[in-house]
Amino acid sequence: MLALMSLRYVTHAWLLAFVYSFQIHFALVAVAGCLVLLLLKRHWYAYLLLTIAVMLLGHGVMMSREFAATTASAETRPLFKLMSFNIEHENFANAGRIADFIIASNADVVNVLEAAPLRPHIARLAATYPYHIGCGAETNECDTLVLSKRPFADKKVSSLGKLWRNRLTRSAIDFDGTKINFLVAHLAKPYFDDFQTDELFDLRSVANAIDGPLVLTGDFNSAIVDPRIQRFMRRTGFHTAFPEPASWPIKTGRFGISIDHVLARPPLRLQSVKRIEDNMGSNHFGLMAEFTIDR
């Protein structure tokens, strides 16, 4: 297990992407296992394994903190509120409840992934969110649905990589004279060959071509400690909250990992990112975030 985790420092191996995302968790298991070995017999090899496990654990924590943004003061009034939620594409039984939650959320912008269950509720949602992208607007596909209380100054749907179509949504909204840019991405699973690597390259190109305040949200299917996500973060200048709320798998609760991210690029600043505690039948937890901006 320690050898598999350590391969990230030697070579890129997409087959081990799952291990990379769980580096902190697996390192904790390894530390516990080494301590058991030392209880059975004090031996230099057990001490060596323990040292490696502690180093991997420490570096995992350091990587998860690397892109942490300096949060705005709690007294600062947020510029806008955003919800991001992968509701799971077969979650039709809970679609009405999810629509009710969105309407009552008081979010200014709502990004819904795998949004097909909400298609029958678009008209009802439009009473609160009269502007939307996806599910018939800009594209008939319903993988990504962007809802807004304010009109879009710009909007576009495009593709990332070659595996899936129309999984990147770009928009811009004016908040009291400040234009905020939004990207919503749904990436392939990291162990699907190198498709995610290609998608991250395309996403980086799009993000770096945008001037001004920028928010990126979505389901990355990878934690922030994954080597490819680390490289993407360094080359785009995004910040994230620390600790990021765990969003998957739902059975582990707060002890899972965050594969759903809310990222901001200065001068935009994350004031808070919180998990929506009721997953409402989805295989992900949703996120609620508030943003401020440095004037």
TrEMBL record:
Q: Supply the InterPro entries for this chain.
A: Endo/exonu/phosph_ase_sf (IPR036691), Endo/exonuclease/phosphatase (IPR005135)
| Keywords associated with the record | Endonuclease, Exonuclease, Hydrolase, Membrane, Nuclease, Transmembrane, Transmembrane helix
Tell me the superkingdom of the source: Bacteria
Recorded GO molecular functions are: endonuclease activity; exonuclease activity
> What's the short name of a Pfam family annotated to this entry?
Exo_endo_phos
Residues forming the Endonuclease/exonuclease/phosphatase domain are 83-284
Task: Give TM segment ranges.
Answer: 12-38, 44-62
Q: What is this protein called?
A: Endonuclease/exonuclease/phosphatase
